[in-house]
Design brief:
Strand 6 and strand 7 form a beta hairpin. The chain is built from ten helices and seven strands.
Length: 234
Amino acid sequence: MGVLTKDAAERLYDRIAGVYDWLLMLFRVVGSERWRAKLIENLKLQKGDHVVDLCGGTGINLPLLYRAVGASGKITIVDLSENMLARAREYAAEEGINNVAFVQADVVEFIFAEGADAVISTFGLEMVPEYATVIEKASDALSASGRIGLMGLKHPEDWPDWLISVGIFLTKPFAVSRDYEDFRPWIAARSFMDEQWFKQHLAGAAYSFVGQKKAVKARTIHQSALAKTHSSSQ
C-alpha cells in the first residue's frame, strides 16, 4: 500500500468520516479510552489553558479536553479532512462547547499560536512522515512549561510476524501498513521535550507519551550533541 500521500490521506478520511467513530470500536474494546483519559490527565491542563489537538478528526478528544480547560480555555482542532472536522463541529454544537476553533490544514503547514499550553495528537502523527518537523514546530510555539501528549500505534517488536499481519489487517480501514513501522514520534519528541511519562500498550503495539518543553539551554546543548554525533558518523 505504501505511505499515503496527503491527497490520498485527505480522500480516505473524507470518505470514512461518517463511520470513523464506529471504526474505532476495536480500539475501545482493547482500552484506548482509558489510555486517552490517562494521557490527557498527564498533560496537567488547567482551566483557561489553550490546547491544540493535531489530527483531531471527529473531535474524539474534545470532551476530555473541554473538561480540563473549561469554558474559559481554548481548544484548537486541526485536521486535513474537512469531513472529519464537520463531524467535530456537529459534536461541539450538540454539547454546547463554544470555545473550539476548527482548522482544516495539513499539520505540517499549520502555524501554531505562540504560547499555547499543550499540544496533543492521538492516533495521528504516526501516519505523518514529517512528524519530527511538526513536533519541533509545536515545541517552539509552546509556553515555557508547555507539554506535548502523543498516543498511537507503533511497531510491536516482540510480536511474531503473523500476529503483526493480523493487526495490520484489522487496521486496514485506516491505511495502516508495514511502511509506517519505522515512524516513531515519541523518539522525535524526546529531542525537544523532557519525558514525563511513557507507557506501552498491547504488548508494544501502541504507546502513550507526555513530555514537557525543555529549557532553552538544555535544548541547545542537546541539539548540539545530536549535530556532533551526526557529523562524526558521516
